[in-house]
Design brief:
The protein is α+β, with helices and mostly antiparallel strands and 82 residues long. Helix content is 50%, strand content 12%.
Length: 82
């Protein structure tokens, strides 16, 4: 059984995958934008301030998807994907 994060279950995004036995398996897959929004929503006030500073000061050099915090969040939410 693949564990799903709350966002996966909440959004009901489905991706059809054919397994080796040719059965159709549906798994929930939130988009990367939805995952980023969920990550930002769960930040504590201090982390949100740090996020805003990084976004403002680093501008185009800042990539949330490559940040240590986001990668750790993704690993925790989807252990089989990261």
């Amino acid at each position: 059984m693949i564990p799903f994060c709350e966002l996966c279950i909440e959004k009901r995004n489905h991706l059809k995958i054919d397994s080796k036995s040719r059965d159709n398996v549906y798994i929930n897959m939130p988009s990367i934008e939805e995952q980023k929004e969920a990550y930002i929503r769960q930040l504590n006030p201090q982390e949100k301030i740090a996020y805003e500073i990084a976004k403002t000061k680093l501008e185009s050099s800042f990539d949330l998807e490559k940040s240590i915090g986001f990668l750790a969040y993704m690993k925790k939410q989807h252990p089989s994907k990261v």
